[in-house]
Amino acid sequence: MSAISREEVANLARLARIEMSDAELDHLSGEMQVILGAVARVQEVASADVPPTSHPIPVNNVVREDAVIPSLSPTDALSGAPASSEQRFKVPQILGEAE
Amino acid sequence: MSLNYDQAIEKYEPTLGLEVHVELNTKSKMFCGCATEFGAEPNTQTCPVCLGLPGALPVVNKTAIESSILIGLALNCSIAPFSRFARKNYFYPDMPKNFQTSQYDEPICINGFLDVEIETYEGNKVFRIDIERVHMEEDTGKSLHVGGSTGRIHGAEYSLLDYNRAGIPLVEIVTKIVPNTGKYAPQVARAYVAALRDILRGLKVSDVKMEQGSLRCDVNLSLAPSGSGELGTRSETKNVNSLRSVETAVSGEILRQANRLQSGEKIVQETRHFLEESGETRPGRSKEKAEDYRYFPEPDLVPVVPDNKWIEELRKTLPEKPADRRKRLQSEWSVPEKEMTAMVNAELLDTVEETVKLGADPTKARSWWLGEISRIANERDVVATELISVTAVAQIINLINQGELTDKLARQVVDGVIAGEGTPADVISKRGLKVVSDDGALMKAIEDAIAAQPDTAERVRGGNIPAAGALIGAVMKATGGQADAAKVRELLLKHLGQ
Amino acid sequence: MSIRSSAAEMAEALTKKEISAVELANQHYAQIEAVDKDVHAFLHLDKAGALAQAESIDKKRAAGEKLPPLAGVPLALKDVLVQKGVPTTCGSKMLEGWRPPYDATVVTKLKDAGIVILGKTNMDEFAMGSSTENSAYGPTHNPWDLTRIPGGSGGGSAAALAAFEAPLAIGTDTGGSIRQPAAVTATVGVKPTYGGVSRYGLVAFSSSLDQAGPCARTVLDTAMLHQSIAGFDPKDSTSINHAVPDVVAAAKKKDVKGLKIGIVKQLSGAGYQKGVENKFNDAVAELVKLGAEIVEVSCPNFEYALAAYYLIAPSECSSNLARFDSMRFGIRIGDDGSKGAEEVMNLTRQVGFGREVKRRIILGTYALSSGYYDAYYGSAQKVRTLIKRDFDAAFEKCDVLVSPTAPTTAFKIGEKSEDPLAMYLNDIATIPVNLAGIGGMSLPCGLADEDNLPVGFQIMSPAMKDDRMYLVGGALEAALLSKWGKPILDFAPRLAGSK
């Protein structure tokens, strides 16, 4: 059973884009330890010969024809935006690089 | 003392890897029914699905799957009997769901190859490029960075997002590592992208316009000391967006890496950006910690399980391979190798073929498109086919063959069509560009010419045939070039007893 | 007819024009006005929209138009389904003030059925919880005892039914969020077969487990609502392209003679309250009296279900909730012009998400991360296969399976909120159904002797055989009603101000 460190939780919070205070990190590290201890039980029966199930009801090849349907009006599309300008979503400066 | 290209190649062996992203030309997006028009007003082609609004769900575009399978077949791939979409999780504002719906360990096509040919001083050489995988994914939105002093991302005060492009189907074609290209690495990379582009164009699955971003290339390159058999650390140069740039990016990276290694520095595994203006690459913003994409099967989509019947039906629709077609046309048209290459390089092979299909003589079709029309196109910095239609060119060539136009007149017709004066017939009638074939009218001009140059006429009567040239010239001048010179010559000589 | 009538009775009164849809809606708004300050089942009332719908139904009825069976009957909608122009918060601060620009397919179907949507009900934030205490807008109180939880995540929908604020409600069930609230409020709730009801417009918690379903006070009402919202939806790739079983006919049949009913050995014993087990056993005895045959079945992998669920659901949620980043909708925190997008995202998600949501996002991020995927998420998906196999084997031997819905009756608000693991145990009997994608119903089977609080009886049916749970549920409900002499909710204390 792997122990999870506070640093690991901090890294997970970074991956999940959630700012966390020191107190939150401390508290959550403790809880994660307990929860992971409980859920790790799945490994007891998950042997190599058991295939994983990702969809409860197996269905294949669900597709739609390549046809255009009307989009939202730009007003509707932008209706929930915290900020907009020039018919675009206005967001704080993007500092990173795109993929 | 820095190494030049030849020295770099002598000391180090490059290994290539190419990732090409192709935007499919489906009418609607990958997972929703929004239109995919290029250049539409911002956020007019968006809906809850491609905006990633809470509650929205994707449904796969059938044509996108079929296009992907066609690409796989054209690249000699195996089509996976079971393939799935996966979520690639990372945050970025131009990606509405903060995960990209992509394919991970179960792509739709695997293990193909493409042979590419390059010209070298030692003759043409063929390189086999092994294809690792072809997979489906979706494009991101576009951001516009506003404010700040430099206009670059770092100086921007805020960013504006347009999600029209978000969700447009992309196919990513990834090669295996390409070893042993030696000094030809830049040419091989370029030839591969060009060959791929021709195939995709032939399949009609994409617009393949590098300048509009519908075909984008990432170049992976590493160097190892020659003969070491090792694999060096690679750099990944993103968004190389023209064939020339592919070549420059590869040679540039070879030089940069070789000089780094030469001075004892290490190559950092990193993403670099290609600078179109200088042909150099600059490092991307290094990530303090590696991303972890946490791929897992997309629960909102079901597996793609193409059966043989579906695949075989698609295989039947595959067009002739570009390389085969080139060979066939070359022999059908009896064109020398050099001319064929010229047509391909000028991207006019399709155009010439269409012109020939409309009844035009292949040689004339080739020389008009590559000659006069390309000359004007170059002058105006536009694409030849934007100047004049295939139909118009075919009509003009046919009129020349029927003796209705001379080459000289035809040039005027071409000018007229380009100037927007209408169809070739319109231009001919508006400008009055008829070949003068009426014997009576011609005879009048001939008699006038003889009257004007009696001495010359006497010499011709005396058997000095070449002297007729001056008289023919005068007749042609008098008829404004609309007479058929051969006809004039025939009538003139006959009139003078020759 | 009164607001305590069933939806079927209300529908009949509407058909006979004994009452108008507008009057019926207003009566319910009056009840909400009177009791919801104590119950807090609703987060938002859409009075204007509801009355406009009611009025249009009345006009159509007056014009002699043929209307769907539930036309004009009011309904409470869980706030996790988007309704165009009506605030949708999912119980989260993150979505405060957001008005979606589109309707969920369920909402479209409700509108087409002429059902009058009164408003949006409270829930655990993003449907994560078993008590509705995780709502950013304060808890919902159980009408049976206002100091107790109404279950969760769909506590608002269940409480609205039990407090006669609406005769019909929509819930969603990822690990028991329809059935466990039904159990602790003495109402009926059904999680249909996965894919039976469209998920389009259901704000995703865990995509492979989420399922919207009907809630009501009687089995027949539940069936009628089920019929109105179920069916194939081309906008949901996981929707089943299959005819919906005739659940209404099954609910009316009330005949279980010769039916084989399996009792799952693993869903009893340690952790189950005595009074819960007693009432469950009494109900089984009623089924025997009705001629059903009882079989004991063993599902050995069920003991791993909870662990698998608490890996799969958080993993999917960590990805599903990534879109809440303040860029396109929802609240935005800290955008003072000096911070970059990433920092604003981080701050918004810190403030916008509650503790339980963050806990699950972090847990899911961990379970999917490289190096841990196989041990956690991958293993959980394998357990899912084993649980499906257990169900398949069990359904070889019987037509339906039964168990208590929840191991205990409603606990006190605040009692378990500091102990996530204890809270998770509430779902021990409901989770296997979600993992296997089959159907599950909870209906009331009595009050526990020790605390006089409702006990839920769970019926599980094989995938796409949802009619079977209605068949058994309808028969059991009728038998219990004649045994008790009056509907179970009549045993509940009268709420102050109740109409």
Oligomer, anyone? heterotrimer
Provide the residue-averaged pLDDT of chain C: 97
CATH class of the domain at 1-51 in chain A: Mainly Alpha
Largest protein interface, residues of each chain: A-C, 55 and 76 residues
Find the structural class of chain C using helix and strand composition.
alpha/beta
Number of strands of chain C: 11
Q: Helix amount of chain A, in percent? A: 25-40%
Topology pattern of chain A, helix = H, strand = E:
HHEHEE
CATH topology assignment of the domain at 1-51 in chain A: Histone, subunit A
Strand coverage percent of chain C: 5-15%
Order of helices and strands of chain C: HHEHEHEHEHEEHHEHEHHHHEHHEEH
Rg of chain C to the nearest angstrom? 21 Å
Number of strands of chain A: 3
Q: Low-confidence parts of chain A lasting 5 or more residues at pLDDT below 50?
A: none
Strand content of chain A: 5-15%
Number of helices of chain C: 16
Helix content of chain C: 25-40%
CATH superfamily membership of the domain at 1-51 in chain A: Glu-tRNAGln amidotransferase C subunit, N-terminal domain
The strand order across the widest sheet of chain C is 1-3-2-4-6-5-10-11-9-7-8
Terminal Cα span of chain A:
35 Å
Mean pLDDT across all residues of chain A, rounded? 92
Keywords:
heterotrimer, B: about 500 residues, alpha+beta, Arc Repressor Mutant, subunit A, 3 domains, nine-stranded mixed sheet, three-stranded antiparallel sheet, elongated, C: about 500 residues, alpha/beta, eleven-stranded mixed sheet, about 40% helix, globular
Compile the SSE list and pairings.
The complex is a heterotrimer of chains A (99), B (498) and C (499).
Chain A: H1 6-15, H2 22-39, E1 63-64, H3 74-77, E2 84-85, E3 88-92
Antiparallel strand pairs in A: 2-3
Chain B: H1 5-11, E1 12-23, E2 60-61, H2 62-74, E3 78-79, E4 86-89, E5 99-102, E6 109-118, E7 125-138, E8 142-146, E9 158-162, E10 169-175, H3 185-203, E11 215-225, E12 234-240, H4 243-262, E13 270-274, E14 281-283, E15 296-297, H5 308-316, H6 322-333, H7 337-345, H8 349-357, H9 362-380, H10 384-387, H11 390-401, H12 407-418, H13 424-431, H14 439-452, H15 454-461, H16 468-478, H17 485-495
Helix pairs in contact in B: 1-4, 3-4, 8-9, 8-11, 11-12, 14-16, 16-17
Chain C: H1 7-15, H2 21-39, E1 42-45, H3 47-62, E2 74-78, H4 105-112, E3 116-121, H5 155-162, E4 168-172, H6 179-185, E5 188-191, E6 212-216, H7 219-229, H8 247-253, E7 260-264, H9 274-289, E8 293-297, H10 305-320, H11 341-352, H12 355-368, H13 374-397, E9 400-404, H14 420-424, H15 431-436, E10 439-447, E11 454-461, H16 466-484
Parallel strand pairs in C: 2-3, 2-4, 7-8, 7-9
Antiparallel strand pairs in C: 1-3, 4-6, 5-6, 5-10, 9-11, 10-11
